[in-house]
């Protein structure tokens, strides 16, 4: 196994280059960029190459600068991520959890949920998408085993964050196009 390269000294110029490189590759919230840069600072501080307090101040100033230059926009990030997760079939509660983990503020969450409302993304529609993607209920690959797997299907829906009544209606629906269930 190759030995790991020593960390670079986290100068403001290096941190800015690292942040811009990260933003070229990934959509991120301000908190997400701060976490990435702080990992670099922490690694350099553990090796004795930097002062953590000074690095934290440099990171905070850089994140503010990137927000001011509109290179980081939490509301836009949250909106795009929320729509993406809704297309995957996740309920609003789970979408909110994921965005909070990413460090999105409450105001940006509200804008993201407003965008979901405009797009017509409801928990019911997400439940149908989730069931279809995971082949649950009426989308079960083997209809003969559907009754035996009912509890497993309900468990999968519950773990995904759907409430019990909605999960039962989806899993017990007769056909996959029965969206009124």
List keywords for this structure.
181 residues; mainly alpha; 3 domains; 9 helices
Helix proportion of residues, in percent?
A: 55-70%
Number of helices: 9
Strand content: under 5%
The secondary-structure element order is HHHHHHHHH
End-to-end distance, in Å? 56 Å
- The stretches of 5 or more residues where confidence is low (pLDDT under 50) are none
Can you count the beta strands?
0
Summing up helix and strand content along with how strands pair, one would put the structural category as mainly alpha
Shape type: elongated
> Largest sheet, if any?
none
Radius of gyration, taken over Cα atoms and rounded to an integer in Å: 22 Å
Q: Report the mean per-residue pLDDT as an integer.
A: 92
Number of domains: 3
């Amino acid at each position: 196994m190759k030995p790991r390269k020593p960390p670079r000294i986290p100068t403001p110029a290096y941190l800015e280059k690292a942040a811009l490189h990260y933003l070229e590759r990934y959509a991120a919230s301000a908190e997400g960029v701060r976490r990435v840069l702080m990992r670099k600072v922490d690694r350099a501080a553990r090796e004795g190459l930097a002062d953590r307090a000074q690095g934290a101040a440099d990171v905070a100033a850089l994140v503010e600068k990137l927000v001011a230059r509109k290179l980081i926009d939490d509301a836009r990030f949250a909106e795009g991520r929320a729509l993406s997760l809704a297309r995957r079939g996740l309920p609003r509660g789970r979408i909110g959890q994921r965005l909070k983990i990413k460090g999105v503020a409450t105001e940006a969450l509200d804008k993201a949920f407003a965008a979901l409302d405009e797009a017509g993304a409801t928990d019911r529609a997400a439940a149908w998408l989730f069931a279809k993607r995971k082949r649950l209920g009426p989308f079960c690959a083997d209809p003969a085993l559907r009754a035996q797997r009912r509890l497993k299907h309900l468990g999968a829906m519950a773990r995904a964050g759907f409430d019990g009544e909605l999960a039962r209606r989806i899993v017990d629906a007769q056909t996959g196009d029965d969206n009124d269930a």
